[in-house]
Amino acid sequence: MHLVSNPARPSRPAGDFIEFVERFDGFGAKTEVFEEDGLSYYVNEFWTSRQRQAGRIHEISYRACFKAQLPGFFIAGLSAAGDTVHDPFMGRGTTPIQAAVMGRRAVGVDINPLSVLLTRPRLAPVTPGAVEARLGEISQAGAAAAPDPLDGDLLEFYHPETLARIKGLREWFARREPADAIDDWIRMVALNRLTGHSPGFFSVYTMPPNQAVSARSQRRINARRGQTPPVRNVTAIIARKSRSLLGGGAHSASHRPDLRCAPAQHTPHLADASVDLVVTSPPFLDIVNYADDNWLRCWFAGIDPAAVPIAMHRSVEAWTAFVREVFGELARVVRPGGHVAFEVGEVRNAKVLLERAVRDAVEGLPFAIEGVVVNLQDFTKTSNCWGVSNNKKGVNTNRIVIMVRK
Ligand SMILES: C[S@@+](CC[C@H](N)C(=O)[O-])C[C@H]1O[C@@H](n2cnc3c(N)ncnc32)[C@H](O)[C@@H]1O
Q1: How far apart are CA 222 and CA 225, in angstroms?
Q2: Within 13 Å and on the Cβ side, how many CA atoms surround 251?
Q3: Would you call 25 exposed, middle or buried from its count of C-beta atoms within 10 A (0-12, 13-18, 19+)?
Q4: Which residue, of 116, 180, 244, 292, is most buried by count of CB atoms within 10 Å of its CB?
Q5: What is the C-alpha radius of gyration for the chain, rounded to an integer number of angstroms?
Q6: CATH of the domain spanning 15-113+255-295+309-405
Q7: Ligand 1 pocket test: which of 61, 73, 110 has the largest number of ligand atoms within 8 Å of its C-beta?
Q8: Which burial class, exposed, middle or buried, applies to 51 when counting CB atoms under 10 A from its CB (0-12, 13-18, 19+)?
Q9: Whose CA is nearest to atom 18 of ligand 1?
């Protein structure tokens, strides 16, 4: 065990967390510990999706998001109340929101402009009552929906009356930029209700809005299912989802959050050594077609999807070089003794072990790897057959590289 030396803060024995992970038996199983290729692995069910602690405030859809229990576990073990927790790939904001829920200061960036729109409102204090009052005001305003070049496409998803409502909302937000906290909230909920498979969404049956299908595919889905878009009550849907997210009023307003649309590798707005903990999961090796997946959300939010430079790395080498650049920036913003929990997931059926690429990426940078924490989703089924080297199939894991800033 080594002690962190930062005279400005109470010393936090960095080794304690790994010891805690090693002794963990919270769900009745012992942690399996082994070394492979120079890395120490700690395997157990450290958190479970059955845990209720996450809270409804997280329940919005985003591609490749992690469950709130993941950042919750590392925030609890590697930071203290009032600490600053950063996510340079914040996505739907799982880390910043969980950080705020746990009394930490939330900061984060993402290259996707939708990310701030989805996260910021859930860190500001709003109430279901204020949301409902504003929805009433927006309906009263009844903005006339101007013709839109995408109308033909949009009518594959929406009844004309529903589309008029959605366009009214869209115009309301465009007129009132910058949004106040209540408009910001309503736009976030609307972004999440745009499309889906049930009457809780504005659209006829389709895919969720983070994987929106093209109008042409939707035409085929409509023909196959014999469906036409029904009228939906946009206001009631937003009010209902707001009440659900707010869980009856409890809210995770964060102290001075700082969320921005920016690349992970260039965050000059964050001061040197200002971050205590990073919990993040980078884009993986798969090729994501951002513009295709997000065309509807981007239309609604007035974003040009073709202008969003989402990182895509086909080879492990290119990915490693990208991650190295990000760690160059993290070396600047994370304070000595602070930690990074870097989730690399399972790629190509665990044939590619990205934790090894992370090790290569940080070589020569002021980070020491303390271990790789592997969370098994269903430990009972797999505890007898787990082995990183034998690549057992069907094991759903999160793999998190734990590093300390030297
Ligand atoms: C695996 S997702 C993270 C999901 C997040 N943990 C959550 O729970 O929603 C990776 C994120 O990286 C973002 N991204 C891709 N390239 C980026 C870059 N160069 N800088 C910052 N964010 C980037 C993507 O927009 C995406 O939101």
Answers
A1: 5
A2: 17
A3: exposed
A4: 116
A5: 22
A6: 3.40.50.150
A7: 110
A8: middle
A9: 263
CA distance 406 to 403: 9
- Residues framing ligand 1 (Cβ under 6 A): 62, 64-66, 88-89, 91-92, 94, 109-112, 115, 263-264, 281-283, 310-311
Residue among 58, 111, 267, 308 to mutate when testing ligand 1 (max atoms within 8 A of CB): 111
Q: How many helices (H) and strands (E) does the chain have?
A: 14, 9
Compute the distance from residue 294 Cα to the ligand 1 centre, in Å.
Answer: 14
Cα–chain center distance at 88? 10
Lowest mean pLDDT among 49-58, 91-100, 191-200, 291-300: 49-58
| pLDDT value at 394 more than 60 | no
Nearest atom in ligand 1 to the alpha carbon of residue 280 is: 6
Instruction: Report the SS3 class of residue 308.
Output: coil
Q: Confidence band (pLDDT; 50, 70, 90) for 285?
A: confident
> Does the pLDDT value for residue 380 go beyond 70?
no
Which residue is closest in CA terms to ligand 1's atom 3? Answer: 91
The DSSP line for 33-99 is: EEEETTEEEEEE----TT-STT-GGG----TTPPPTHHHHHHHHHH--TT-EEEETT-TTTHHHHHH
What is the pTM (predicted TM-score) of this model?
A: 0.91
Q: Considering only CA atoms, which of 127, 51, 139, 65 is closest in space to residue 96?
A: 65
